[in-house]
């Protein structure tokens, strides 16, 4: 199970005062140096956190993987075609949300999502769809050509009772295995942290990669980027 670090909320902190610091690009490079397998950024249409400047610098400077989260937006598709990230993850986007609130409804938006996938494939970009752990959504994702899915783990993360977490983990496991049988890669993310990753790592054989941002950024405020990333890597590895 690989670890990619989402640096969106480093940009949120920077933008709170309209300043240039903290720089999400610097944070990303430090995370990469600490052992992260890649970096995730969401270039929103409203540019709430990550800016175009951040994306272009990351493309030039990263040595590992760049995963661009994006809506099915003509403007963002064109930008993706210019920078060619290793992966483009399509997510739903609402103006009032603090963070992405749930998975993309592929079944209800197949034409739009299919067109976006085709345009990204034309630029040699692999595409992942951020969806709920739902068999029908997975089948629809495969039908329209997605290379990966990213399973939304927010429900798992928000549960308080251990038995509820275990039940949701089983649901995620079933979904991941189904996607694997269809030949898709399987990533996961949303709300994962230093506590719940200890249970989530049981899906090491089913999940290729996790995307974690806020928890690592928050920890880094107290212990530094290097230690925050390395501690998460150790937890994923079961150390």
Radius of gyration: 17 Å
- The CATH topology turns out to be TIM Barrel
Low-pLDDT runs of 5+ residues are none
Number of helices: 11
Fourth CATH level, the homologous superfamily: Aldolase class I
CATH class, named Alpha Beta
Per DSSP, what share of the residues sits in E-state strands of 2 or more residues?
15-25%
Largest sheet: 8 strands, parallel, barrel
The second-level CATH architecture is Alpha-Beta Barrel
Helix content: 40-55%
Number of separate strands: 8
Instruction: Classify the secondary structure makeup into a structural class.
Output: alpha/beta
Can you tell me the number of structural domains? 1
Average pLDDT figure: 96
Order of helices and strands: EHHEHEHEHEHEHHEHEHH
Task: Summarize the structure in words.
The chain is of the alpha/beta class and 239 residues long. 47% of the residues lie in helices and 17% in strands. It has an 8-stranded parallel β-barrel, surrounded by 8 helices. Helix 2 packs parallel to helix 3 and helix 10 crosses helix 11. The longest helix has 20 residues. The chain is globular, with a radius of gyration of 17 Å.
List the helices and strands and how they pair.
Blueprint: E1 2-6, H1 8-16, H2 24-33, E2 38-42, H3 52-61, E3 65-70, H4 74-83, E4 87-90, H5 110-122, E5 126-131, H6 135-143, E6 148-152, H7 154-158, H8 162-181, E7 185-189, H9 197-200, E8 209-212, H10 214-223, H11 225-236
Parallel strand pairs: 1-2, 1-8, 2-3, 3-4, 4-5, 5-6, 6-7, 7-8
Helix pairs in contact: 2-3, 6-8, 10-11
